[in-house]
Amino acid sequence: MPLRSINGIALSYDEHGTGEPVVLVAGTGAPGRFWRTHQVPALTRAGFRAITIDNRGVPPSDVCEEGFTLDDMVGDTVGLIEALGIGPCRIVGFSMGAIVVQEVMVARPDLIRQAVLMATRGRTDPLSAAASQAELDRLDGGVKLPPRYEAVVSVMKGFSRRTLNDEQTVRDWLDVFEMSPISSSVSRSQLAVDLIPNRLDAYREVPVDCLVLGFEDDLMTPPHLCREVAAHFPRGTYQEIAGCGHYGQLEEPAAVNAAIIGFFQKGRG
């Protein structure tokens, strides 16, 4: 995977396919390969060039143990788009990655042609604030969770009741998350990025077409938080994917991919 010097750090990214570029920004603790099983193949089949990023805090990008902010992550995404010469481009963000994308849209709307925001929010609700602060307290206390425990927590929080009631599917996902963890221990600063103030009013003047995808059974980012983000972007549209939890793009990839690609193809017209 190539590395670029962006915003004062080494930022790792990868490119797949040819055609109009789509940048994909993952959530807390997740590497760029998070997108490779489902979204990257679908995008490349549809004629897009998929560019995945290992956000700062996730190796092989710089870990930045001294800490960083949401503004730093926004600068990384802007810097990579400019370094690759692909703006204005299409962009997809998931969870924390969607928060980063929203701030890119505010700061540099000229760089974004269309945006898809998945499992996102424009403010920190009380439960999310408590969950993020609890994780920060754990890290500050030096508590490191075993990979198997983190896998159990990720599956319980990230999937719908339908998936959790399927014993073989649960076993499979537990194995996946234990072998390739999306770990909240990777970066304290990424956890802190999740604690955003109310940014909804900042979206009202953003002249970018965006699709906000909410997931019906999402416990981590309930759909009403996604709907209010879409309502505050003047060119925002909301779509809800049924029967999936926070990791909707893994649980219902066909529906998610169809929504993303359909939205981008309309933009081509």
Notes on the structure:
It is built from 11 helices and 8 strands. It is an alpha/beta fold and 269 residues long. The protein has a single domain, classed as Alpha/Beta hydrolase fold, catalytic domain (Rossmann fold, 3-Layer(aba) Sandwich). It has an 8-stranded mixed sheet, sandwiched between helices. Helix 1 links the parallel strand 3 and strand 4 (48-54). The radius of gyration is 17 Å and the shape is globular. The relative contact order is 0.16. It comes from Actinomadura viridis.
User: What is the CATH T-level topology?
Assistant: Rossmann fold
CATH class: Alpha Beta
Beta strand count: 8
Domains (count): 1
- Low-pLDDT residue intervals, each spanning 5 or more residues: none
What name goes with the CATH superfamily?
Alpha/Beta hydrolase fold, catalytic domain
Computed Rg: 17 Å
Q: Order of strands side by side in the largest beta sheet?
A: 1-2-4-3-5-6-7-8
CATH architectural category = 3-Layer(aba) Sandwich
What letter string, H or E per element, gives the SSE order? Answer: EEEHEHEHEHHHHHEHEHH
Basic shape: globular
Specify the structural class.
alpha/beta
Protein name: Pimeloyl-ACP methyl ester carboxylesterase
Domain AB hydrolase-1: 22-259
Keywords: Hydrolase
InterPro entries: AB_hydrolase_1, AB_hydrolase_fold, AB_hydrolase_sf
Key traits:
alpha/beta; AB_hydrolase_sf; 269 residues; Rossmann fold
